[in-house]
Batch of 2 targets.
Target 1
Amino acid sequence: MGFSKDNLTGFILALLSSGFIGASFIIKKKGLRRAAAASGVRAGMGGHAYLLEPLWWFGMITMIVGEVANFVAYAFAPAVLVTPLGALSIIVSAVLAHFILKEKLHKLGILGCVMCIAGSVIIVIHAPQERSISSIQQIVNMATQPAFLLYVGSVMVLVFILIFYFAPQYGHTNVLIFTGICSLMGSLSVMSVKALGTALKLTFEGKNQLIYLETWFFMFVVATCVITQMNYLNKALDTFNTAIVSPIYYVLFTTLTIVASIIMFKDWDGQSAGSIISEICGFIVVLSGTILLHVTKDFERSSSFRGNAGNYTPLSPTLSTRLCSGNGESLKHDVEEGPSSEEIGYFQVHPRCCDNLLKLLASGNFCSCWKTIKLTF
C-alpha cells in the first residue's frame, strides 16, 4: 500500500525516535561509567556524580529529542504503525552496546534484531492510512463513541482493581500486576497523546485548537496517565529483573495501544482482510524478536556469572536453601537427616563465604552434627 504524506512523515519521525532513544541508553551508560570512575561511587550504590557529567546530560537530551519525535509521530501516523516501531530502539541499543560498550550480542540476539526489522517492514507495508482530522471536536466524537467508552470504562475498572486489591497482596510476587497497570494506563496515554498532538498540529497549521476546553482536557489526561504509568513501571523495575519486565511490558503495552487505536480511530476500517492479517503477523514477529533479544541479554549475564564462578565451592542445595530461611529448628532437623540422593546437587558459594559458613555451622545447634555435611574445597 502506498504511503500518504502524513504516514511517511510519521514513519520517519518514529524511526528517528527509535534511533535517538536507543542511542541515549548507550550515551547515558557511558556517562554513568565515566562518573563512577571519577567519583568511585556508582549510581546504583547511591552516587549522584553523574549529574555533573556532561556525557550523561547529552544522553538525557538525546532521549528527550527521541520522545518528542515519538510524540509528533502520533500526530501524523496511526498508532498501529508508530507503536510497534518502538522496538527498533532496542535494536539500536543492542548493536551500539556491542560495538561501544563491548557487551556481546548473542547469535540469538542477532536473530531477534532481524525478526524485529522484518516484522516492522511487514507492518509498514500494510499499515492503514492516517485519517484526515479537521478539529478537536472530531476527536472528541471518536473518544465518546460507545465502543471506546466501554474500553475506557473497562480499563479504569481493571486499573482500580489491580491497584487497590491485587497490588498490595501480589504486586511484589507477580510481575503482571505492575506491568498490567502500566500497560493499561499507557494505552490511554497514547490515545490522549495522539489527540493532543493532532490538536497542536492543527494549531500550527492556522486552525487554533487551544481555545477549546477539550484540548486542555486531553493534556490533563496525558499528564495523569503518564505519571501513573511511570510510577508503576518504576515499581516493576525495582521489584523484578529488567529482562523479565521489559518484554512483558512491551507486549502488553503495544497490544493494548493497538486495540485502543483500532477502537477509537477505526484504523482497520476499509482495510482488506489480507492487510489486517499481515499486520497481525508482523506484530507477532516484532514481539517475538523483542522477547528473544531480552532473553539472550539475560542469558549472557548468566553465562558471564557462571564463567567467573570457576573457583566457587559446591554445596548441597538443601542445606543452602534452608540456611537462607532463618529457621533454626528446620535447619537442625534437615542437617541431621541429611539430603536424599535425589536432593544432592551443587550450589555456588564463593570461597570468601566459607569461613563465615563454617562458623555458622559450628555455632548454635549445628556443632554436634556439622561433620556429617561434606564440603568440597
Target 2
Amino acid sequence: MASEDSTFDIIITGAGLSGINAAYLLQSELPNHSFTVLESRDDIGGTWAFWKYPGVRSDSAMALFGFPWYPWTEGTNMADAHLIKKYMEDAAASQGIDKKIRFNHRVTSESWDSEEQRWTLHVDFTSSDGTVFEKIFKTSWLVNATGYYSYEKPRPTVIPGIERFQGEVVHPQFWTDEVKYDHKRIIIIGSGATAITLLPALAKTAKQVTMLQRSPSYVVSLPAKDTLLQFMERFMPIQWAVKINWWIRMLAETLFVQLLLNFPNWGRKYVVEAMRRQLPKGFDVDKHFNPRYDPFEQRLCLCPRGDFFKALRGPNASVVTDHIETVTENGILLKSGETLEADMIITATGLYMVLLNKIDVFVDGVRINDTIGQRYIWNGVMLEGIPNTGFITGYVAATWTPGASTRTRQFIKVIKHAEKTGATIAAPYIDKAERARLPKEPCIPNSSTYITEVRDRLPLVANVGPWRNGKNWIEDAIRLWFGLITTGMRFTSWNWAKSD
C-alpha cells in the first residue's frame, strides 16, 4: 500500500532534459498539484550524465536545445556534455525542481486501475549501502520522460570476425575513463552523430583515426559562437535578446528543414557543396559524402566550427566507404580487398530504440508493452487506449527540446480540461469504423537502420486529425493553441466508463 508521501497528483519518470522541463511546466501551469520526479540513476542529466566518450556534445544549437525558461547565455552554439549537465543542474535548482527529484528510484512497472482511477508504480529503490527495497507510488497522472533508447543495451549488430580481434573493442555507450586511445590506430565503425563527434576528438592524440562507413551521411557545420545573440546583447537586456534569438532561431530552423524536405534536389546540392568546400582539395566527395538518401530522410549530423572537416584535412584522420568482409586479429578486411590495421575498434553502430525501457505497463491487468506498435499516437504525446499518461519525446529531424515542450503542454491541456469538466480519466480513443479507414504510418519516418529495425515497437500515425507525431514546432504549436482537445480523446469518470 502506498504511503501518504508516495501518493501524488502527478509523477514524472526521468530527470533528463525532458523530465526537468516537464517538471517546470507542470509546477508553473498546475501550481496546486503535488508531483515528484523518479530517477533511476543517482544524478540529474539523463543522456548528458550517461555518455562519456570523447567530445560528446549537443548536436543542436543551444539557443533552442536549452530551456526557454532558463536561457543558455554562454554564447556557444554547441555545448559539451558536462556543460549541459551543469546547466540542467543549475536550471533545476533555480526553480526548486532539484528538491522534487528522488534519485536511485527505478520504476519496474506501471499499472492503471480504472476502478481506482490511478496509476500504481512499483519502484526499486537502491539505498546508499546498495540494498534494494521495493516502494509503491500512486498517481492520477503519469509523465513518462525516460527517452526512447536503452541505456543498458546498444543496437545489436553483427560484425563478422569481431571476436578474433586482438586489440580493444569499445562501444561508445559504455565508454569509461579507463579507455586509453593516445598514439593508437583506431577504426570507428559508423557514420552517424557519434562517429562524427568522435573522429575529431580522437584525432587530437591518436596515431590514426579511420571512420569506416557503409554509406555516407550529411554533415553540416555550425559557427562556434552564437554571434546573433552576442550582437543583440550589446543593444538590449539579455532577457529580450534571448527571446528574440529563440524566435529567429526557431523560424530559421523550421524554414531550413522544410526547404530541404520539400526541395530535396536543391537541398542535396546545397549541403554537398557546403561539405565539398570544407574538405581537402581532391577529396572524393561523391564517394564519401554524397548519401543515397535525401536530406532529413535521416538526421543531419552537425559539427561545431567544422571540426570534423578540419580533422580530415590533417595527416591522421580519414574516411573509408566500404563493407566489412571480416575482422582479423590486427584490423579489418574490407569487401574491396583493402585491409585497415587497428589497435582499437569503436562500434558506433546506433542505439537500441525502445519506449518504456524495462518498465512493464498494465492497463486494467493487461500488459500493453507488446502492443505499442499497434496503437496510434495522439498529438505526439498520448497513446490510444492508455489513460492519463503522456510519453514525452522531442523531434528527430529538428531540435529536441521545443518538441518535448509542446507535447508536455499538450498533456497539461488534457489534465486541465479533465479537471474543468469533472472527468477523472482521459484516454485517446478511435472507434472501429474510423480506425479501419486510418492509414498506418510509422511515427518516425526516418530511414536510419536503427529506427527502421524497431518500427514494430513504435506507435503508429495517420497524419490526419490528432493522430500525428509532429515534425516541427510551428505545426505542433498551432495544434496546441487552436486544436480541439476533445477530438480523438475520451474524457470520462469511472462510473460512466463502467457503464459504457
